[in-house]
């Protein structure tokens, strides 16, 4: 007797008599079968019987069902920024909508066209009503009666009946025989009163363009058209257009001619494009305290972490003085919660361990390799050193660092342990011809006498101030990369509003001043190449590694103790060389008649993007407050010249009497320092809904067992191993 295996959730097994017409065998046969009941529109209970045997023959009992009851659960988030009250979900007219159960209108869309008419099938509509609220999420539910012959749901139309936008996290349809349908939204949905056009969200099933089901083709094309801009008109708040433009909005010459800035993005000043949002022109920012007031003593710097700093009462601040209130709401709360209007900073971890860590040359060198900017160091490949800048503008290109200076400094280290670490030998500072004065340059080296020690410390401060200039849907590829670009547009918009705009934080707190963005444009033009953002290519281009097939990762590092490179290469290999991910990409790029000649190129591109937005970004971002929170360790500006740069007799005498005073004068002012510290504190913090590489799988992949295995089986395990390795290294 044949015994077919039946699997069905929420089912019971009963004996069912089958006769010869249904199966080969002698006489009657009794089989364990699976029974499942569906609710139908006329409330009849209909039993659906299925079984299989070695001949793959199926038997289905007769059915009179007309439709299936499907429940939709919509999750609305309290928004990324936390301003849930702005959504108006619990207020005013929208309360009435909720009470009436008409908050969201949902329409189910079939994946295929009607085979009889060749037209799109009529959608199935239903209103969603609020059912629960817990902390950061609100749940809405809707019920549908879906005809048996409707087929697979490929998309959902959503119409927001509220008067304000709301943030939809996901929609789950439950009740279909093949299991629930998941729809990831993660998007704002505008009010129908702002724009009557419904939003469309596609199910989590991914398709290459040539594989798109017939019922979704038009919707896919229309969605792409909505997202593409034409460079015309002013963007409205509900629009999702990804239109691009040059950086022509960081200046504000209408209010002050001194705030005129060049356009970045043309031939004269190359620069990557920004998202064209139609945001109003940048407003100027006025310092809320004396912009030139510095710190008289080092203990005054320490007081930022102990006693705090006095600020004007928030109620007295006008719009132009709203830096702390508008850009940093968390900081504003810290101020307003105290009666004395004190702004108190958290002590950075580096300073907490060692108050004088920033003084030491070993730490200066270590942070060059594993600090905020481990991307600048380059190997010297030509000697003597010679500048590549135009000598007609910047003066003689020959360096003042001679062979004799280097040999003298190396001798001191050659007698040491030679542990393969980086040591600073010399610093050259150069001032180009200006105001009728010729070029000035000088070389500073580690020194033991009192004057030389302070000159060396000042020279390091100038180096650090200059180094701070470099601070930092249906398609399967879209879904692979989407988590790595969250909030990118928001962050860039905020940056143009208060960070890189004329008179903003960068210009008022960093050494290049109003030329900061122009410098960035020059660096982008001369140095930035996408292919060099790949970690191995970057290390090789800077002379910090050479190809070596016998070395780990195929690279031999020039400096063995280079934590950023050592740890980064582990992560790079995990992203790129996972064989399952590589084979998945190769298969997917050779389907649907859209084969790529070199799938390896696609793998390299995606690996680079994922690396830059994960490992690279983490390395230069999350340590900003740790290293820059105590600003003497990473000053963003040098406000004074070196004491040896054509000093007056009075200045030189004062330097000899109180050299630490010269260093304090060189450091940022109080307002410059506190602005940057506040920004670094915010940028260094993780988002409340932070996503970590390999931590969870995109729902679109999770629903497909093949993709799920490819993307999780080896990568997640490998990342856990790497985490342990890096933690162990950090403890050494």
Automatic annotation (TrEMBL):
GO terms for molecular function: metal ion binding; oxidoreductase activity, acting on single donors with incorporation of molecular oxygen, incorporation of two atoms of oxygen. This is Lipoxygenase. InterPro entries: LipOase, LipOase_C, LipOase_C_sf, LipOase_CS, LipOase_plant, Lipoxy_PLAT/LH2, PLAT/LH2_dom, PLAT/LH2_dom_sf. Gene3D superfamilies: 3.10.450.60, Lipoxygenase-1, Domain 2, Lipoxygenase-1, Domain 5, PLAT/LH2 domain. The lineage of its organism: Eukaryota, Viridiplantae, Streptophyta, Embryophyta, Tracheophyta. Keywords: Dioxygenase, Fatty acid biosynthesis, Fatty acid metabolism, Lipid biosynthesis, Lipid metabolism, Metal-binding, Oxidoreductase, Oxylipin biosynthesis. Residues 83-203 form the PLAT domain. It comes from the Eukaryota. It comes from Fagus sylvatica.
